[in-house]
Structures
1.
Amino acid sequence: MKNDISRRASLLHLSSLSLAEKMKSGSFRSLYRGRGIEFSGVREYLRGDDVRAIDWNVTARMGKPFVKVFEEERELDVFIVADASLSMCVGTSQQTKIEKAMECASLLTLASFYNSSPVGAVVFDGELEFFCSPESGKKHSLMLLSHFELDRKKQKAGSVLDSALRGAEKLLKKRSLVFVISDFRAAEWHASFARLCQKNDVIAINIVDSSDYNIPSVGSVLFADPETGYEAVLPTSSQKFIRGWREENEQRKENWFKECVRHGGIPLFISTVQDPAAELIKFFSSRHRHSF
């Protein structure tokens, strides 16, 4: 068991280093293009600086070249909204949705640490389980990781995604990079998500599982909604039911994607069978090439 933990920690470390490199290569800064970056001051010209950034008035006054400094050159705060609700406890692979979500959160925390970016988080189920502002440093990052790695066996029923998003909006004082990691099965989150997107760059990571679209044919089975407790017997051997299940969930997936984009978010699907580090690295590489 100890060897498994050490191996997992080592893999997490290596993967987050690769992810940090992709973020540092320009993916973070490209998020801010055309978003009304504010002028924050001037500094002396350094070799390699873009000559187009030279402030000629200050240069003439000081007798040596100075360049304008904008908000994008400052630290970029990172904030993670992680869903630990009961609906995330499903999974037909080796990992459940909640385990995959927390692995994503851990990777993003470590990558932010390696990039010296302040990082904060909120973890929620039926209530706000944990909440902290973005901070820098190893001690703070390890504290976040300890919350993501908790063995969650007694979650509160329901999902307060809406409250978590509203809390993040109030907490973040400057434009930040926000990752919302959830299955988005909660109700009434759209308005809060839209407001969060107005002041921040929001990447919505929808954790999916094959059971969302495919259900085994095993006869009549009692299903229970983990969030509401509602129970119903479903005819899983019925081809009509199986087809309807798949179509309904595919439509939900498509609607979520459209809603996310409409509100100003950047959608990303990660399944329980995918390597989240590889998917995030691929995502940032693609976004850097196409410039957000």
2.
Amino acid sequence: MAVDLCSTTLTGISAKSSSFPWCSIWEGLGNRRVDIAKLKKVDCIDQTCQFVLKSIADYQATLASTGISCTVTDTSTGSLINITVLGSVCDGIAVTKTAIPSNFQNITTYTPSPISFLTPAPTFLSTAPTPAIPSTTTTPSSSGEETKSSNSTGIVIGVSVAAIALIAAILFVIWRRRRAAAAGQALPSNQPYGRLNSPQPNSQKPSSGAGTTSSSHKDGNAFELDKLDLDMHRVTWNEVHLVKMLAQGAYGEVWLGEYLDGKIAVKRLLPTKTTKQDLQKFIYEIHLVSKIDCPYVVQFLGVTWSKLSDMMLLAEFMDGGDLRQVLEANNTKRSFTWTHKIHCALNIAEALVFLHSMDPIVIHRDLKSRNVLLDADFNAKITDFGIAREVDETTLTAGIGTYRWIAPEVLVYGHYSESADMFSFGVILSELDTEIVPYSDLRNGAGKPYQDTALLAKVMAGELLPSFSPDCETWFVHLARDCLALDPLDPLDRPTAM
């Protein structure tokens, strides 16, 4: 019997729309009916609803690859239209609503139900996930039917995967808007504060006088910043020379530098991250690391600036690279042995003991393999942490998605605790075992790697955990799984660093 993939999928998506019910598109979509006139009045002026419409329209591209044209009835005109029309229905209509409607503020940020109707229950901690493929019953005399059924199966899988991505993308946008709204309450100003220069080696000039607490923007506005006690750690600007860039992240970049004839690491903000809010967070981070003196945390050396928007954090240089680089190189070199790995894990744990024992407690917030640095002897130290760390679209999607190391409760509720650091530690333990990027070996129902959006949704829902190899030591796997426990409301579920 023929499968109406269009009706089946639109009905399923519509039935699982509880996370964004204020959009009128859902009123008749399950019955393949839309009211274009109402969409223009209600949905087109809402940022999320516009995204929903465009996402559904984009879904037709996947259906088209299977030879299917998904149509719906426009109840305002009685005409039959292709769902691609939904992608342009809002053209020329300005968005006036960007916040979640007040009567829907208590809706859960993310629930697993919107994608569960299309996917089987996942296998946790699987080393080789087996895609769930619908079975096909045939008889020896029905080879034609078998081929037809197999083709239908492939189409169903492909369309289902696309639908998962559609729902996950919409949920992510809603989550992002809530996080952005919450973050916007901290510091109201997003105006650029100066401009981050890109001085070349030997081109810096010494600053004149002590640092100030304000800097004038090109339009004449000046913004006050709290420098705390950074003046006591300040070194002369022209004594620091930048040699080459080592890495770039969502908010800053790290350079190899020279200071007093020695190699150092220099961290500074990106040119696009020089608002008052960005600079103040960077100052808070520098102030925090200046208070930490631990052999398992990269050593703070000082800070320098010519104007505050040029501020640079100076730290010790670790010549062994970061842990992710070491693990990737180990595919061929095989020099990073299990003895080194255990030693590395112990170093990270010692760093967490120190941070979580401070008063007040310091939570790393962004513990991942890129933020574990090693020296030539594979001694490890953690870096790049502090109160400046936030979970938003930029940090989640830059490079290898940061969400792969973040605890589900942080992704969903934005709630950080020592327990969240321990979850990240568990992810790193899985990396030490498999040497691969977390979740990169897992496959969806079609046997293909998860797209970032779909993977993020499943991580947020607590439906996936990193893998471990079959020959990994049992005690190591048990330790990692304890750290990866999914009930953060019970502090006993995850061990502490102490």
